[in-house]
Amino acid sequence: MTLGVIGRKVGMTQVFDDQGLAVPVTVVKLGENIVTQKLTKEKNGYVAVQVGGFLVEEKKLNKPELGSFKKNSVAAAKPLQEYRLEDNAAYNVGENLPIDQILKEGMLVDVRGKTIGKGFQGTIKRYNHGRGPMSHGSKFHRSMGSIGAGTTPGRVFRGLHMPGQMGNKNHCVRHLKVVRVDLDKKVLLIRGAVPGCDGGLLTIHPSKTKWN
Amino acid sequence: MNQIIQEIEAPLLKTNLPVLNIGDTVKVFVKIKEGGKERTQGYEGVIIKRNGHGVGATVTVRRVFQGIGIERVFLLHSPRVEKITVQRRGHVRRAKLYYLRERTGKATRIKEKIGAKKELVGAASPQAKAAPAAAPTAPAAEPAKSETASEQQ
Questions:
Q1: How far is it, in rounded angstroms, from Cα A21 to Cα A11?
Q2: 10 Å Cβ neighbour count for B14?
Q3: pLDDT at A136
Q4: Which residue, among B4, B7, B9, B14, would best test binding to A if mutated, counting the most A CBs under 10 Å from its CB?
Q5: Is B54 on the interface with A (CB under 8 A)?
Q6: Are A27 and B78 within 8 A, CB to CB?
């Protein structure tokens, strides 16, 4: 897995491209992205770097969490993310990730985040099922109807669309274009929509495509 | 609005936009591309709707052309919208003039706002008391100054 960065969704707006056309963009505030730990083959069994997204107050962490920061004498950061690498010699504990090397303008990225929670929803909202007539004596309104035949097969097929929790689930949107990288303000503009509400945590990775 | 988004939008917002109200007759100059060449085309009509704020603010301009009603939506801060001039200030009592769609001919006339004519004659070019989108952030006097400065250039 290649290196990615951690950020927070700020909201959406639009900018204009060189032809004067409006481009819908999501604004992402990038975190500090501090290397908090280096994992080695000898000690951990695999080579990786652990990255902390945003600096937090020490009182926001519990003692075991704080302990690992104290041990490496780095600032407390949250959330933590590990990136497996072939070689992590280029990264030192306590330094910021080189965002300008990871993300470039015009690049395609995958954005992961937690979608907005919709709660326990029926099949109409959750899976775009149709509904029955609401009037004319119909008693079939929004319920999901039959879930299968009787004795044969004698069971309910796996994966059947049923009511349940909708949203509040990790989701990835692939191949979004990076419109602008502003390292002074630590702001990233990504074309299109990304999962989650404003203020939600996001991880941004370069896409595995032939265009990058 | 979020401060970070405001900072991103700030350089994109036009400061020389005239005050645009619902019911005003305006002329919008739009850049269009025709076979590699670029030219400006004017489009005149009545503002029947305003939508959005910040860089995404739009106006819907309605005109009747050869008996067919046309409504075009203009993104106010788009670089393709070169200039907007106010021809006539209208006196209306609605925020959305959808009722004009069902009317034809004389019934579509809109009363002129009293005292507006002087204002338009006085300022030959669109007076920029405040750019509509920038109005809440900037004090009224500042954009007016920048307008005169751009005229001198």
A1: 20
A2: 19
A3: 96
A4: B4
A5: yes
A6: no
The residue of chain A with its CA nearest to that of B13 is A15
| Lookup: tokens for A84 | 């497996």
This prediction's pTM: 0.81
For residue B31, give the amino acid letter.
K
Structure token digits, residue A76: 């407390």
What is the distance, to the nearest Å, from the Cα of residue B50 to the centroid of all Cα atoms in its chain?
9
Q: Supply the ipTM of this predicted assembly.
A: 0.80
Per-residue confidence band for B124, with pLDDT thresholds at 50, 70 and 90:
low
Please provide the size of chain B in residues.
Answer: 153
Helix (H, G, I), strand (E, B) or coil at A68: helix
Nearest CB neighbour to A14, from listed B1, B7, B55: B55
How far apart CA A96 and CA A77 sit, in angstroms, is: 12
Of the candidates A14, A53, A55, A8, the residue with the CA atom closest to the CA atom of residue A196: A8
Q: Which residue has the tokens 């010699």?
A: A89
Query: Quick check: A27 and B54 CB within 8 A?
Result: no
Q: Residue A50 burial (CB < 10 Å; 0-12/13-18/19+)?
A: buried
Among A9, A12, A14, A179, most B C-beta atoms within 10 A, so best to mutate, is A14
For B145, the enclosing helix (H) or strand (E) is helix B141-152
